[in-house]
Design a protein that fits this description.
Helix content: under 10%
Strand content: over 45%
Order of helices and strands: HEHEEEEEEEEEEEEEEHEEEE
Distance between the termini: 18 Å
Radius of gyration: 24 Å
Largest sheet: 14 strands, antiparallel, barrel
Number of helices: 3
Strand order of the largest sheet: 2-3-4-5-6-7-8-13-14-15-16-17-18-19
Structural class: mainly beta
Oligomer: single chain
Length: 419
Amino acid sequence: MYSYRIVCALVALTIGVAVMAQNNTNSPYTRYGLGELREPGFGRSQAMGGIGFGVRDHASINPANPASYSAIDSMTFLFDLGISGLASHFNDATGSRNTHNGNLDYLAMQMPLSKFMGASIGIIPYSFTGYDYSLTGTTKINGLSDTINYAQQYKGTGGISQIYGGLSFRLFNHISLGANAIYLFGSNSYNRAFSIVDISNTSLTTHSTSEKINIDVSSFNVRLGAQVFGKISKKGYLTVGAMFEPKMNLHGTYDKLILGVDSTKDALTSNVFETPMQFGVGTSYTYDNRLTLGADFLYQKWGDAKYFGQTGALKNRTKISVGGEYIDNPYGKTYFQRMSFRFGAYYSDSYINVNGYTPSQMAVTCGFGFPLRSSKSMINTSFEYGIKGKATDTSIKENYFRFTLGLSLNEIWFFKRKL
């Protein structure tokens, strides 16, 4: 029976690999860098501002810090699946636009290996790319007083996902160490077209050019984690955690095709793109298994990561997250007492540079955990409202609303019944 369930879970994970390749955004900002970055976190974490480095819970999966896997109960199997939807409103100095889309967000499972060890495997997004917009303008011709009208069309799709497999073990009942082996895969497609719409009072010939760039990623990395935890009072429980990922070369292929007056084609296979060295620290405090408060700090050194073969094109990124959860009574008799109420917020710098401007992002989050009556499983919801950038002649402001619906299955798989 157990092997049958595990096979079903692996089949679901395989299906998720195919579905996750689709993009889940429609933002002009994803034209830059590797797209819109997503931190590893599931429904519970997303509703709490994205905290995770110092979070340790026996009933939820937390890939942000692999040291958390050892918190799982010795007879518990966890399976977590989430879908999300995104609605965005963009505006600048000339107009506005609304978009919406959705996709599978994450898929993972976790199980104990012994009383002191836990393991997890899953698929989560690394970044999304999705945009489709055009620009028109007028410019002067070199050496002439006449002007021409031109149009530029930009379109991009794709995404990079990561499959992880992690182990964690507990030492001395107060220390946990863990590691995730990560396989990154996916592709991004960037298309740009330029055309002359009209020419006045000249004999110049109209022409158009197009540029198409394809990036296919297939690479490995590792995420290391550590947590120190224990009681600091009769009802108080404190966890302090840290995470580290080294810089990694994104192996794969890079193709660039330019069609027009002078057609060219370039192809490279390595030393073109890198993911940054990053580290994070966080802490959480739980009182009486009812109230949890936490905070995270993340630093990503994108300035040293190669982008189109060069360093310095991207910016170092920081992110600060705070969040909490309240349960009136985890063992209460009424449904309302066992519900989870979650809240949070975060602020993040951007790692991209748009014409000398680096857009920042801030958001507030909230969510609920609805326990299923017949088991320890739970339906998790999270709501996020955020603002990215600002509206000017050269930049765009994005107001967005993201909704995530997750199902966290918590079952006893390793218990042998006796007659």
